[in-house]
Design goal:
Strand order of the largest sheet: 5-4-8-6-7
CATH topology of the largest domain: Ubiquitin-like (UB roll)
Helix content: 10-25%
Shape: globular
Number of helices: 3
Order of helices and strands: EEEEEHEEHEH
Distance between the termini: 103 Å
CATH class of the largest domain: Alpha Beta
Number of domains: 2
Strand content: 15-25%
Radius of gyration: 28 Å
Largest sheet: 5 strands, mixed
Structural class: alpha+beta
Length: about 220
Amino acid sequence: MTLSPSSGFVIPSPAFLRAWTLESQRPGRLLRTNRQQLKEYRLGRKTEICLEPLQKEENLGPQDVVLRTQMRLPGERAYAPCVDLVWDTARGWTAGSLRQRVAHFCSLPVEKIEIAKYFPEKFEWLPISSWNQQLTKRKKKKKQDNLQGAPYYLKDGDTIGIKNLLVEDDEDFSTVADDLGKKSQEALRVQSSDLFSSAKTPSRPRAPEASLSIHVGSFR
């Protein structure tokens, strides 16, 4: 795995690189162990790999998760540039643990932040509440709190939006770009629906009815 000479990057050592599989033109699976050979990852023959240069050395542990965090800009439907956050999931993939890590990372009280995972393919943000907030009066039986499962499916490379409740207190995480993306998706859906309708095989025209002559005979 090497960068092309035209890239212009100077890489002191492999510890200054992250290697990702490329899925749908986006980073997918993080290949985190530098000493592990590619064949041990059981990648397909046509798997594409992209390399991400880093500003400092990185040695991720087996339970570390790399997330892209973005702080919401107060009074705007926009975010600051993303900043990487490494989350140690040794204590579990819980919403409470992630909120604590994000709050510490942003130097904010945990009760003064709201976070949400971004789904770029849908242009949607899904808020991640602490487990106590998720429980309702009807749910007396505690379920497993694991962000790896539905509905979050959290993994390396996911984007987490952060809202500072000290300066902005509303539930909206969306951006203007999300609105435009959804409109574009809806337009494509309508266009595809119209094309599908017009492509249907027209029904066969009915053959002209044959003339029929009826002769009434006399039975007397």
